[in-house]
Design brief:
By secondary structure, the chain is mainly beta. The protein folds into two domains: about 1-155, Trefoil (Acidic Fibroblast Growth Factor, subunit A) (Trefoil); about 165-300, Trefoil (Trefoil (Acidic Fibroblast Growth Factor, subunit A)). It is built from one helix and 24 strands. It has one helix spanning about 15-25, and strands at about 30-35, 45, 55, 65-70, 75-80, 85-90, 95-100, 105-115, 120-125, 130-135, 140, 155, 165-170, 175-180, 190-195, 205, 215, 225, 235-240, 250, 260-265, 270, 285, 295-300.
């Protein structure tokens, strides 16, 4: 898997892109729609009968797309109305279609808002633009579209999984996940491994900047994962309402599936304490870079 990631920059390995990639895996084969958030009538991307891409669709087959896995963390979008035909961008910044096997048919889905499923579509072959729509519904040239409102699309679909809430699973045992270890919502709750899949095991990102992020538990709104007592070897990971540096993490050593969570400004990683990814194992900070410190994300809720 690592070899497949070699053509991507480290910037694309950041936590939001890893979340996006895990969501793609969960949504592979599912049908979605792209609603322009800049179009005055909020129309959807559509493949017309003559093969052109417009933003004039409702939610019928021409405006329906099937998510397929591309290389690395990328997506491909196959037309429902014309199976085997994929959304594509060419060097002129034009929207067209192709067979899906090459980078011009592959996109990064960069979520602007995971909760609202609002994203930008950035082509792999041509990373200096975005898919764009003008307020009057006319397609904006790809090469002339930045990160503003013209590039924003809301994803929807009847069998859609929310891209907001995910589980964090240790490499050593996918039967357990990081869990807020208590039935009560209060401060200073420990994070441990547990087999439960309720709200205690669901988390979302709250980005501080492109590199640093807070990990917010669904079970404890207003709190985030925090290093108790400051960043140090063997410090327990807990939930707390402190928004200081102890609550900021970034991903490291991503191999296409597993990654490490590192504390801001310190050489310590979240670690399954004791070496066994078993129920009730503590999560602490440590310099260990063995399998105990490797995790992946899952939307298979």
């Amino acid at each position: 898997m690592a070899a497949a990631m070699a053509n991507l920059s480290l910037e694309e390995f950041n936590f939001p892109m890893i979340v996006s990639g895990a969501w793609r895996d969960a949504m592979d084969g599912k049908t979605i729609h792209f609603q322009s958030q800049n179009h005055s009538d909020k129309k959807h991307l559509k493949l017309t009968g003559d093969g052109t891409i417009e933003c004039t669709g409702g939610k019928g087959k021409p405006a329906s797309w099937v998510i397929r896995k591309g290389k690395g963390l990328t997506y491909k979008f196959e037309s429902v109305s014309q199976p085997g035909v994929y959304l594509k961008v060419n060097a002129k910044g034009e929207y067209t279609t192709g067979p899906g096997a090459h980078p011009p048919c592959m996109f990064h889905v960069d979520f602007v808002d995971f909760g609202a499923a609002t994203c930008r579509l950035q082509n792999v072959k041509f990373p200096d633009g975005r898919v764009g729509v003008k307020p009057d519904g006319e397609m904006k040239p790809y090469n002339d579209t930045g990160e503003g409102a013209a590039s924003h699309f809301q994803i929807s679909g009847g069998d859609m999984i929310s891209p907001q809430w995910f589980q964090i699973l240790p490499k050593g045992n996918d039967g357990v996940a990081l869990n807020v270890y208590s039935g009560k919502v209060e401060t200073r709750l420990p994070i441990k491994l547990w087999a439960g899949k309720g709200d205690n095991a669901l988390f979302r990102l709250d980005s501080v900047n492109k590199r640093q992020h807070r990990i917010v538990p669904k079970h404890a709104p207003g709190h985030s994962l925090n290093i108790e007592g400051g960043v140090a070897n063997e410090a327990q990971v807990i939930t707390f309402d402190d928004a200081g540096p102890n609550s900021m993490f970034h991903t490291a050593d991503f191999d296409g599936q597993y990654f490490r969570l590192q504390a801001k400004g310190h050489p310590f990683y979240m670690n399954v304490w004791g070496g066994n990814a078993v129920q009730e194992a503590d999560i602490k900070m440590y310099s260990d870079k063995n399998e105990n410190s490797l995790f992946r994300l899952s939307f298979a809720l």
